[in-house]
């Protein structure tokens, strides 16, 4: 696990804050079956996502994140979403933008 943390820090220094989005998506992807099961409710999903995440295969995780962040179309969309969000914040619409 300490090596995973160091690799993620290296990736953060290279990729910036987009890395946090990629890691969050990766964690949700790993837990997708539990999150979308019929028995899942708010408390179980919250407990699952609040637990300590240890990847089964560090190389697979890092490769998946690398492919995600290497997708030029996705990165362009992420940039557009950030700019759109900054516009919401500038105009005071950020409090209702997600509802």
Protein topology:
Blueprint: H1 2-15, H2 18-30, H3 32-35, H4 42-50, H5 58-70, H6 72-91
Could you explain how this protein is built, in words?
By secondary structure, this protein is mainly alpha-helical. 74% of the residues lie in helices and 0% in strands. The protein contains six helices and no strands. The protein has helices at 2-15, 18-30, 32-35, 42-50, 58-70, 72-91. It starts with a helix and ends in an 8-residue tail after the last helix. The mean pLDDT is 91.
* Structural class computed from helices and strand pairing: mainly alpha
Distance between the termini: 37 Å
Number of helices: 6
Beta fraction:
under 5%
CA-based shape = globular
Q: Helix and strand succession?
A: HHHHHH
Name the helicity range.
over 70%
Count of distinct strands: 0
Mean pLDDT over the full residue set:
91
Poorly predicted parts: none
Please give the largest β-sheet.
none
Radius of gyration, taken over Cα atoms and rounded to an integer in Å: 16 Å
Could you write a compact summary of the structure shown?
The chain has six helices and no strands.
Task: Provide keyphrases for this structure.
about 75% helix; 6 helices; mainly alpha
């Amino acid at each position: 696990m300490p090596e995973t943390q160091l690799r993620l820090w290296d990736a953060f220094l290279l990729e910036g804050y987009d890395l946090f989005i990629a890691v969050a998506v990766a964690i949700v992807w790993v837990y997708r079956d539990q999150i979308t099961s019929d028995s899942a409710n708010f408390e179980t999903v919250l407990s699952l996502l609040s637990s300590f995440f240890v990847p089964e295969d560090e190389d697979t995780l890092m490769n998946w994140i690398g492919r995600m962040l290497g997708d030029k179309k996705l990165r362009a969309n992420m940039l557009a979403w950030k700019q759109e969000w900054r516009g919401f914040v500038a105009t005071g619409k950020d409090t209702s933008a997600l509802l």
